[in-house]
Design goal:
There is one protein chain. By secondary structure, the protein is mainly alpha-helical. Helices cover about 55% and strands about 10% of the residues. β5 and β6 form a beta hairpin. The termini are close together. The model has no long low-confidence stretch (mean pLDDT about 90). Keywords: Membrane, Transmembrane, Transmembrane helix. It is found in: Membrane. It is a multi-pass membrane protein. One of its GO terms (cellular component) is membrane.
Length: about 170
């Protein structure tokens, strides 16, 4: 049987970045529909979102690995949500110095410096739950088979009576 290794941190970062980018576009499209009834569903984001989401979720992955046996799921999601606010504020503040911040929450009632808003607390919390339970946990289960040939299907494991042979 070929040796399979966990994905590298860079590979996981890439998957997290693409996932975050996609979710950002879908969220903004849904928001546009709910707020303005826009049937075109125009979802938008910025290339900065790749770095922001990839790095943030990789850091949350580290948190998950340290916290999973120590505190309940809802507490972990609260911690991830607080981290998200800190990360969004920090990256937004840095990008704003270069006139490159792609978001502005100034029109929201509970914003802070236009960089974060409490109106997104519930979506961020729900996103944190989904992120841990589906995205991070499944990404950590992915394996890279360094011996596989590109374009060739992986050989199935040897079976004995319907079970994987472990010799």
């Amino acid at each position: 049987m070929a040796s399979a290794e966990p994905l590298t941190a860079l590979s996981r970062w890439y998957l997290y970045a693409i996932h975050g980018y996609f979710c950002e576009v879908m969220f903004t499209a849904a928001w546009e529909f709910v707020v303005n009834f826009n049937w075109k569903f125009p979802g938008v984001t910025s290339v900065w979102a790749l770095f922001i989401y990839g790095t943030s979720i990789l850091i949350v992955e580290r948190m998950y690995l340290r916290l999973r046996g120590r505190c309940p799921l809802l507490v972990r999601c609260l911690i991830y949500t607080l981290w998200t606010y800190l990360w969004e504020f920090t990256t937004g503040f840095i990008l704003r110095q270069f006139n490159a911040c792609p978001w502005d929450y100034s029109q929201f009632d509970f914003d802070f410096m236009g960089l974060i808003t409490l109106e997104y607390a519930v979506p961020w919390f729900c996103g944190a739950l989904i992120m841990e339970q589906f995205i991070i946990r499944n990404t950590l289960r992915l394996r890279f088979d360094k011996d596989a040939e590109p374009g060739e299907p992986a050989s199935p494991p040897a079976l004995a009576n319907g079970h994987v042979k472990t010799d």
